[in-house]
Automatic annotation (TrEMBL):
Transmembrane portions of the chain: none
Tagged with keyword Glycoprotein: no
EC number: 4.1.1.7
UniProt entry keywords in alphabetical sequence: Lyase, Thiamine pyrophosphate
Protein's name in the database: Benzoylformate decarboxylase
Listed GO MF terms: benzoylformate decarboxylase activity
InterPro entries: DHS-like_NAD/FAD-binding_dom, THDP-binding, Thiamin_PyroP_enz_cen_dom, Thiamin_PyroP_enz_TPP-bd_dom, TPP-bd_CS, TPP_enz, TPP_enzyme_TPP-bd
Family membership noted in the UniProt record: Belongs to the TPP enzyme family.
Native species: Hyphococcus aureus
Thiamine pyrophosphate enzyme TPP-binding domain span: 377-512
Length: 517
C-alpha cells in the first residue's frame, strides 16, 4: 500500500528537495517513520532560524526548499522569518503538523485553530487538505505556486494521522521557463529608449534572481548610462566595480527623485525602486519618462507613471538588446575608490576594508549589519552574481541563519555572515547548526554594544533612543557554547589575523569585532 508519506517523499525526491529544514514535534513524528537514507534533515534549534536557513538555501541553490514546523506554536515562532522570505520572493514549502482530524472540533492540545489564516498575507497560498488522500496533491500544488513567478513561500497544514493513510502517487508538473514580455510591448518601448538623451538604469534583486547579470551589463554598456541599485536591495544585480555603477538609492522619495531628476528616461528593472523607509515626499513629480520591467504586478502597481512591462526581466533585457542603438562608450568612473579607513582603532569601515582585501574570491556574503551598511555599500565591492544576500523585509534575524543555508547549498565555497551584534541575537541558535554540520561559515559580529542603527534614526528624528543598550554581550562564549571556534578582535591587527585564520580554517568560526562606532 502506498501511503501519504510514501507519495510526499517520492514527490520531494523527484523535485530534488531532499534537504528538509525543521524543528520537529509530536505532530510531525509519523513523517519520519522509514526516513529515507537519501534525505538530509537539517535541525535548527528555533523555528525562526529554521525558516531563514531554508530561505538562504533556496536563494543560493536556486531551488525550492521544504520546512517542517511544529503546529501553531512553531509557525508562530517562524513568522518573522516568513515575512522576510515573502519579501525575498523565496520559493519555500512550509509545512506544519496539525493534531489528528478526529480531535480538531474540540480545539485539542497542540492543535492549530484556523491554520491557513495564520500565515497570511505572507504566503502565496495556504491549505489544510480536506482529506488525507489529498495531502500529496496539496504539496504538489504548493510547489507549483511557490515556483511560479513572482516566487514565494506557501503553507500546508498536515494532520498527524494523515501520513499513514493510503494515497496514490502524484504526477509532478514540470515548469519550463518563465513568461517573457510580449514582442509587441518590447517593440512599443524601443523608440522611447532610443530617443532618450540621458537615460539611467535602476536595477534590483529580481535581476540577480532571474540570472540577468550579463544582459544588464550589456544593456548598460549599450546605453552608456549610470546604473543605480534600488533602495535596500536584498541582492546585488550589477558589478559594483564597473565604471558605470553609480551606487545605492536612498529609501525616501525626495532622495530618489533628486537622484533621477537629471535624466529624461528611467529604466527600472526588477527593482522596488519606489518602496520607501522614511517619509520624505518629493516637492515635485518625477519629470522623466519611466519604463518599469518586473514579473511582479504588485510591485509594478506602486509606480505612479510611465509604462509597465510584465515578464521575466532577464528575457526582457535580452529581447531589448538587438533593438537598442549603441551609444558612444561611457567615459570616466562614477564612484571613486574609497580612501583606506584609519587604522588607529577598529571601526566598521576598517573591518569592511579588511574583508574586501582578504575574503576568498568565490565567497558568498549574507549581510545584516544595519548601522554598518553605509560603510559596506561604500567600501565592499560585490562583482559576482548570486553571491550577496540580505533581507528585503527589514526584519532582523535573516542573515545569521541564511548563511547556514547558503553554505549547505555551496559547501565548496566560503560563506561569510556579516552581522551587527543586535542582528546576530535574533537567530543566534544557527551557530549550533553551523557547528553540528561543520559548515564553511565565518561569522563576523560588528559589536558596537547597541542597536546603533536605531540610535541613528532617533538622532535624526530628535527623539530619545530607549532600549538600545546591548552592553555586556560575550559572543565568544556564546559561540563556544554552541560548539564553534571563536575569538575576539579589538584592533585592526587582531582583526586581520583573525580573518586570515578564519578563512584558512575549513569549518565554522566566529569573530567578535569590538568597534567604537
Amino acid at each position: 500500500m502506498t501511503t501519504v508519506r510514501d507519495s510526499v517523499i517520492d514527490f520531494l525526491r523527484d523535485k530534488g528537495m531532499t534537504v528538509m529544514f525543521g524543528n520537529p514535534g509530536s505532530t510531525e513524528l509519523p513523517l519520519y517513520r522509514h526516513w529515507p537514507e537519501d534525505f538530509r534533515y537539517i535541525l535548527g534549534l528555533q523555528e525562526s532560524a529554521v525558516l531563514s536557513m531554508a530561505d538562504g538555501y533556496a536563494q543560493a541553490s536556486g531551488k525550492a526548499a521544504v520546512i517542517n514546523l511544529h503546529s501553531a506554536a512553531g509557525l508562530g515562532h517562524a513568522m518573522g522569518s516568513l515575512v522576510s522570505a515573502y519579501k525575498n520572493q523565496t520559493p519555500l514549502i512550509v509545512t506544519a503538523g496539525q493534531q489528528a482530524r478526529s480531535l480538531l472540533l474540540a480545539e485539542p492540545f497542540l492543535g492549530a485553530v484556523d491554520p491557513t489564516a495564520m500565515p497570511k498575507p505572507y504566503v502565496k497560498w495556504a491549505c489544510e487538505p480536506a482529506s488525507a488522500a489529498e495531502t500529496p496533491q496539496a504539496i504538489a500544488r504548493a510547489y507549483a505556486i511557490a515556483m511560479t513567478p513572482p516566487k514565494g513561500p506557501v503553507f500546508v497544514s498536515i494532520p498527524v494521522d494523515d501520513w499513514d493513510q493510503p494515497s496514490g502517487l502524484v504526477q509532478p508538473l514540470d515548469f519550463l521557463g518563465s513568461p517573457a514580455p510580449g514582442k509587441k510591448a518590447i517593440a512599443e518601448i524601443l523608440p522611447r529608449i532610443n530617443a532618450a538623451k540621458k537615460p539611467v538604469m535602476v536595477l534590483g534583486p529580481e535581476v540577480d534572481r532571474a540570472g540577468g547579470w550579463s544582459a544588464a551589463i550589456e544593456l548598460a554598456e549599450k546605453l552608456a548610462c549610470p546604473v543605480w541599485t534600488s533602495p535596500m536591495s536584498s541582492r546585488c544585480s550589477f558589478p559594483e566595480s564597473h565604471p558605470q555603477f553609480a551606487g545605492f538609492l536612498r529609501a525616501d522619495e525626495t532622495s530618489v527623485f533628486e537622484t533621477l531628476a537629471p535624466h529624461d528616461l528611467v529604466l527600472v528593472i526588477g527593482a522596488p525602486a519606489f518602496t520607501y523607509h522614511f517619509e520624505n515626499p518629493a516637492p515635485n513629480p518625477l519629470a522623466a519618462d519611466l519604463l518599469q520591467f518586473t514579473n511582479d504586478a504588485t510591485i509594478a502597481s506602486y509606480t505612479k507613471k510611465g509604462a509597465i512591462i510584465l515578464g521575466d526581466v532577464a528575457s526582457a533585457m535580452e529581447m531589448l538588446l538587438p533593438g537598442v542603438e549603441k551609444r558612444p562608450s561611457f567615459k570616466g568612473v562614477l564612484r571613486a575608490a574609497p580612501q583606506p579607513a584609519p587604522i588607529l582603532s577598529l571601526s566598521a569601515a576598517a573591518i569592511v576594508d579588511l574583508l574586501q582585501a582578504l575574503r576568498p574570491e568565490n565567497a558568498l556574503i549574507a549581510e545584516e549589519a544595519p548601522s554598518a551598511r553605509p560603510a559596506i555599500q561604500q567600501r565592499l565591492r560585490i562583482d559576482t552574481p548570486g553571491s550577496f544576500f540580505a533581507t528585503a523585509s527589514g526584519g532582523l534575524g535573516f542573515a545569521g541563519s541564511a548563511a547556514v543555508g547558503a553554505a549547505l547549498a555551496h559547501p565548496d565555497k566560503r560563506t561569510i555572515a556579516l552581522l551587527g551584534d543586535g542582528s546576530a541575537l535574533y537567530t543566534i541558535q544557527a551557530l549550533w547548526t553551523a557547528a553540528k554540520e561543520n559548515l564553511p561559515v565565518t561569522y563576523i559580529i560588528i559589536n558596537n554594544g547597541g542597536y546603533e542603527a536605531l540610535i541613528g534614526i532617533a538622532r535624526r528624528w530628535q527623539t530619545p533612543s530607549v532600549g538600545t543598550d546591548l552592553s555586556g554581550l560575550d559572543f565568544v562564549n556564546l559561540a563556544e557554547g554552541f560548539g564553534m571556534k571563536a575569538r575576539r578582535a579589538t584592533t585592526c591587527a587582531e582583526m586581520e589575523k583573525a580573518l586570515g585564520e578564519a578563512f584558512a580554517f575549513q569549518g565554522p568560526s566566529l569573530i567578535d569585532a569590538i568597534v567604537e562606532d
